[in-house]
Specification:
344 residues, Pantoate--beta-alanine Ligase, Chain: A,domain 2, five-stranded antiparallel beta sheet, two-stranded parallel ribbon, 9 helices, 17% strand, T2SSK_SAM-like_1st, GspK_central_sf, Type II secretion system protein K, cell inner membrane, transmembrane helix
Amino acid sequence: MKRQKQNGVAVVTALLLTTLAITIVASLFWQQQVQVRSIENQRFQLQKKWVLRGALDWARLILREDVRNSHNVDHLGEPWAVTLGDTHLDQYVENGKADTESSEASLSGQITDAQSRFNLNSLALNGVIDARQVEVLARLFSNVRINPSLAKNAAAAIASTQGKLIPAAGTGNKNNLPNPGTSSSASSAGTTNDPGSSVNPGASDINTDVQFLRFSQLDDLLSIPGYTPEMIVSLKNFVVVLPQKTPVNLNTTSKEVMAACLNISLTDAALIVAGRERAYFRDLPDFENRFPGRITTDIAKDISFWTNYFFINGKVKLSRSALEVNALLERTAVANKVLWIREN
């Protein structure tokens, strides 16, 4: 009887040890599988970034060539405005599959004229609100069914993020920039008795008592009371935040923005857009010849027919993962500069 009990204990012990060994082996296999999958995902991510980097360089090349051939005009009939649909990259991207299997790597994207939208940084300059631009934004809000009174709130917020120039006493020169070490109290006096002071008596000063962070994207409007996420979605295709004040390109803008800028009805703006589709506007005289009386002297300062800022959107899919990149590019006659890149 005692021998049978010992045999039973030995069997149970053997079963427990076997179960433990199987558990350990299974755990090791699982950890190995996780590590392999992690390495694979990192490889996919790196490959996607390189593909998008190549696409960004290609977009820069297109815009650089456009400068040489466009003759100071940008419109939706140019090569940069053509949307790139899903393009398979079978022969260009290694995605971990065998050579006999079809690739799932694809690239899509487009270049968008950033100056086709109203620039929030046009609402104020050096901390001073531009009332005319506030009216333009209010009309745009009305066109997209948003409370027009919110335009004043946005202008005040934009102005608060900019340094305000304060001319030094006894001088009429407002173009000289101040020494960064000066204070607003010292600049109001214009002079100082301290020989080591950094105040320049002949220069302007910038009031930096309260300096808020500058707006960098449309979502920053959510920091202003009255704005909601739904409003941001509605404004996505009509409003933008660019580094400096910019005119609106009438060759690429929407009827809503055009109606707000020219102070005309949406119907009249739609007629201009329809005429633009038949033939783009070469310059201001061409526009006035085809649509006389639409642009006044004040409005002419805020519109253009060429562009310096572009959005570049690219999306690459690789097997089971995808990566989307948005970039803002500043184009000049000398070079194209990428101002920021954001991954989604």
